[in-house]
């Protein structure tokens, strides 16, 4: 099983989401979002090839895969397999435009 490493910008994405849900619904909603993120990261670590390649194909970034959250389904984790680990590049709400500039320095 490969371990996941979370990029600095993905941590910023996570903090943004946590703050959003804290303000929108309080501590319990924010905690549920956090739990959903790390539940999906564990799934990615176990089965990295199961993530969708669709975003990577659309962005012409062949290694990029994504996995939607289970409960907060508009959100997705974007990652690549990098040697013996998985790099979490971004954690994004799919209701925003997701374009190649969000992955500068990786493709």
Structure description:
There is one protein chain. The chain has a single domain, classed as RelE-like (YaeB-like fold), CATH 3.30.2310. The protein is 40% helix and 23% strand. It has three helices and four strands; from the N terminus they run βαααβββ. The longest helix has 20 residues, at 27-46. The protein is globular and about 40 Å long.
Mean pLDDT score, rounded? 93
Q: Count of DSSP helices?
A: 3
Strand order of the largest sheet: 1-4-3-2
Biggest β-sheet strands, sense, barrel: 4 strands, mixed
Give the CA-CA distance, first to last residue: 24 Å
Uncertain stretches of 5 or more adjacent residues: none
What structural class results from the helix and strand content?
alpha+beta
Provide the CATH topology: YaeB-like fold
Rg measurement, Å = 13 Å
Anisotropy-based shape: globular
Secondary-structure element string: EHHHEEE
| CATH superfamily grouping | RelE-like
The counted number of beta strands is 4
Measured as a percent range, the helix fraction is: 40-55%
CATH architecture: 2-Layer Sandwich
CATH class call: Alpha Beta
Number of domains: 1
Give short descriptive properties of this protein:
107 residues; alpha+beta; YaeB-like fold; 4-stranded mixed beta sheet; 3 helices; 4 strands; globular
